[in-house]
Amino acid sequence: MLKLQGQLPIVHASTRAPYLVMVTKNAQLPTHLKQVRALLMLPGLDPTGFKTVLAKGKEQSVGSLGSDVFEVSDDYEYLDEGDILRVDPASGSMRCLYRRNSLHNTILLTERCNHCCLMCSQPPKQADDSWLMDEAMELIGLIPPETEALGFSGGEPTLYGDRFIELLQYTKTRLSTTAIDVLSNGRAFRDLAFAKQYAAVQHPDLLIGIPIYCDDPVRHDYVVQSRGAFDDTIQGILNLKAVEQRVEIRIVIHRQTIDRLVHTCEFLARNLLFVDHVALMGLEITGFTRPNLDLLWIDPYDYKDVLSEAMAVLNAYGMAASVYNHQLCTVNPDVRGNYRKSISDWKNEYLDECAACTERDECGGLFSSSKLYKHSAHIKAFS
After folding, report:
1. Cβ–Cβ < 8 Å for 47, 64
2. Is 255 exposed, middle or buried (0-12, 13-18, 19+ CB in 10 A)?
3. How far apart are CA 61 and CA 28, in angstroms?
């Protein structure tokens, strides 16, 4: 697991307010670029003129008194040319917002949400955090145009209304060839006018992932802890498809959804056959999942036959479908054609027994939180 944020020892601070800065190893940049760069300090480099210096030791900060200088540990060895950081000289905190060599960059837009899902990995908060949207707009302006893919998540991003649409328009302008994935509960699109605003952006490669946890409205509303959510979500999906937008349905599998999983897939095939993709997803042991673990946990190995049956329904109807967040040794061979390595690289790990597995390169592994708290009791190496 990569450490994307933390507190760093402050060697010298010349500013107080947080800011975004791009990492470089090139000490020979022109002065105007040094003023917006963080030099990843290496022996023999002159840090003079850089806005920020990331040093392995205090001795490397000589001559850089005009810079904000932080000591970085081996936890941040992954930092490389073109990565983008948010640094706060007042507190010594640093957060990596974008890694140039990763395909799993997701921008958090808000922690506010109108759901309170039992297994939410980003527990909602009600405080005004619109500074995250301001930061996202600034970040988009720094991200290289050749970036292949980017995600927007929350909380619930659509709570911003017009500002969310503005972000999509700006992203289309700045990153015209970048594939964009948005995670949303879809309820805002029950308003057809808002769905039309979203469509009017005319982004060439935009996909919105919306959860439907059960075909039973009562069960779905219970999982998301919000009355009326199922009806709003279905109407939102219908409106999005009416204006020709790409939609992915996401189903997180756990004890509260497993007994209706096949029925839910049949519901999708009968009523939402026109969606662009369906993802059947394993549980991430983080956020609200931890205190609700007894309510949610079921070993993936114990539902592998149900997973096969559900996937067979989707395949029979010709729906594009995938299995996410599972280990190969916990699923039946008949779902291999739909199996995907999906866990973001910064939180992807394997067990010790996976080291000798002949299928490891094809296996998605585990969430780091699953390795720490709870995982299948049936994980074993293929030989």
Report:
1. yes
2. middle
3. 17
Cβ-contact 190, 232 below 8 angstroms: yes
Element (H, E) at 85: strand 84-88
d(CA 106, CA 309): 32
How big is the chain, counted in residues?
A: 383
CATH for 106-372, among 3.20.20.70, 3.40.1190.10, 2.40.10.240, 3.40.50.20? 3.20.20.70
Domain with CATH 3.20.20.70 in the chain: 106-372
Buried b (16+ CB within 10 A) or exposed e, 104-134: ebbbbbbbbbbbebbbbbbebeeeebeebbe
From CA 143, how far away is CA 150, in angstroms rounded? 10
Q: What is the pLDDT of residues 11-68, one digit of tens each?
A: 888 778 999 999 999 999 999 999 999 999 888 888 889 999 998 865 554 555 678 9
Half-sphere exposure of 187 (CA within 13 A, CB side): 18
- Amino acid 57: pLDDT: 65
Interior/surface letters 30-69, b for 16+ CB within 10 angstroms, e for the rest:
eeeebebbbbbbeeebebbbbbbbbbeeeebbeebeebbb
Enter the tokens of residue 211.
């959860």
As annotated, the residues of the chain forming the CATH 3.50.30.10 domain(s) are 5-98
Q: What is the DSSP letter of 339?
A: B
CATH superfamily name and code, 5-98: Phosphohistidine domain (3.50.30.10)
Is the backbone peptide bond immediately before 161 cis, with ω within 30 degrees of 0? no
- Provide the whole-model pTM: 0.94
Half-sphere exposure of 21 (CA within 13 A, CB side): 27
The pLDDT of residue 46: 86
Q: What span, in angstroms and rounded, lies between the C-alpha atoms of 137 and 356?
A: 44
Task: Report which secondary-structure segment, H or E, holds 170.
Answer: helix 162-174
